[in-house]
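User: Teach me something about this protein's shape.
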Amino acid sequence: QGKFLTEFNMMSAGGLIVAAPVLILYVIFQRKFISGMLAGAIKAEPQPMSSDPIIVTSPAELGAVVAARIADNMATAKGRQFLLGCPTGRTPAPVFEPLAVELARRGLDPRSLTIVLMDEYLTDDLQLVDPAVEYSCVGYAQRYIAEPLGQACGAVPAIWHADPSRPDDYDARITAAGGIDLFLLASGVSDGHVAFNQPGSER
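Assistant: First, the predicted structure itself:
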């Protein structure tokens, strides 16, 4: 036998003896390890999410279900500002009047709600269109989201929208507020479009 012989079998056995207690402890306490790593990784106490689809029979029923989900999540916000990402148009329209009723019924203050708009129409010189025009997203939020809440609850939510000359500032503002709590998704009622200009649009 050589003077500098390496006994791999003994090294392997020693390594296993050293590693075994750590592995056993991890197996026993793995749930606590994982929950500890995830602690603080979410903004608020999450509402349980079901993997089962919710089947509704009408837009009105869908609006009531979504409004209740928004109110449930607002109730867990515990006094901080709740950011609701909102599309505009016919798809989300059934949500907002039931939301006003639901917040009033629960005594939730709309001033703790911020409506975060994701899009808006621009003029040829890349300015926001006048909110008074029918197709303005800001105008939609004022008329169909804030106004019913004001009538039902006596207060209105904040409405955020991007400055077209400084869109990165909008991302920074949302991030500084902790991110969007709940986002309503929508597709075009007539043709199923999702965030693109209609065929034939100039831009």
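Now, about its shape. The mean pLDDT is 82. The first strand starts at residue 82 and ends at 86. If you'd like, I can walk through any region in more detail.
User: That's plenty for now, thanks!
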